[in-house]
Structure formats: structure tokens, C-alpha cells
Amino acid sequence: MARSSVTQRLKLAVATAAERHPQLAQRSISPHTVRHTTAMHLLQSGVDITVIALWLGHESPATTHMYLQADLSMKERTLDKLQPIGARPGRYRPPDQLMQFLQSL
Predict the structure, then answer these.
(1) Per-residue b/e over 54-73, b at no fewer than 16 CB within 10 Å?
(2) What angle do CA 88, 40, 57 make, to 5 degrees?
């Protein structure tokens, strides 16, 4: 199937889905978006990068890295694993300067 045919079929599928989910009509959805999203879901499911590279048709896993930019939740899970033993996992929250000021009054 030619690239233009894939793009055309995807456009029709998005238009059909937008009838039920109108927010899709506002989104830019392309074959590249579908490839990238699928690669991210595979990565988040624990699929090895070499398998993802083969699935995408890449010769080398190095080519796949552009699809596998880790999202924020993946980064947070990784950082939580690096916390010192006994440390409470979570996102860093800087001190509230307004509260510190009000408490000093």
C-alpha cells in the first residue's frame, strides 16, 4: 500500500471516530503519530527496543530512538527507583515561599 493510501485511510478512520469522539477532529493524527504512539505503548509495556525496531521495520535499534522518547510517567518511575532506601517516592515540590513568609510574621 502506498503512503498516500495509508494517509487517506487513516484520515477516513479519524473522521469516522470523530463522529463519536468530537475532540479527535481537533487533533493532528498522521501515520507517524500512530507509529510513535504504538512504539511508546510497546516500550511502556516492557517490550525490548530491538523488538520494537523490528516491528517498525528499522535496520538498527539506534534508528528507533526517535520514537522512544520517554514520557514523564516513565521518567518518574525510573527516578522513584533511584530514591534512597526509606525515602518517600514522589515528585519534588519546591518550598512554598509565600507560606514561609506568612509563618514568619
Answers:
(1) eebebeebeebeebbeeeee
(2) 150
Alpha-carbon torsion (17, 19, 23, 27), positive or negative: positive
CA distance 12 to 27: 14
Q: Are 9 and 30 in contact (CB under 8 A)?
A: no
Tell me how far CA of residue 51 lies from CA of 45, 46, 58, in angstroms: 12, 10, 10
56-96 residue pLDDT tens: 888 877 777 766 666 667 777 777 777 676 767 677 777 78
